[in-house]
Write a structure and sequence with these properties.
This protein is an all-alpha fold. It has one domain (2-71). It is 94% helix and 0% strand. The chain is built from two helices and no strands. It has helices at 2-31, 34-71. α1 (2-31) packs antiparallel against α2. The longest helix is centred in the last third of the chain and has 38 residues, at 34-71. The chain is elongated, with a radius of gyration of 17 Å. The relative contact order is 0.17.
C-alpha cells in the first residue's frame, strides 16, 4: 500500500512539473513573438525532460527500495 502512495506521489510531481512548463510556455507566447518563445522553449525542453526523467528514476528507486524492504 505504501508503494502505491509513493508511485502516485512521483507521478503527481512529474505531472505538476510538466504542467508548470506548459503554463510558462503559454504565458511566454502571450508576451513575446511566437518564434522567440519557440526558440527559448526548444532550448529549455531538454532540461525539463531531463528533470522529469530524473524524478521518474528516483520514483522507481523508491518503489524498488520499498518492495525490497517489504520482502525482508
Amino acid at each position: 500500500m505504501k508503494t502505491n502512495h509513493l508511485f502516485l506521489l512521483a507521478i503527481a510531481l512529474i505531472s505538476l512539473l510538466f504542467t508548470a512548463y506548459v503554463i510558462i510556455a503559454i504565458i511566454s507566447i502571450a508576451e513575446n513573438p511566437v518564434w522567440e518563445t519557440v526558440q527559448t522553449h526548444l532550448t529549455t525542453l531538454p532540461l525539463a525532460l531531463a528533470v522529469m526523467c530524473y524524478l521518474a528514476k528516483m520514483a522507481d528507486d523508491i518503489i524498488r527500495e520499498a518492495k525490497t524492504s517489504a520482502g525482508k
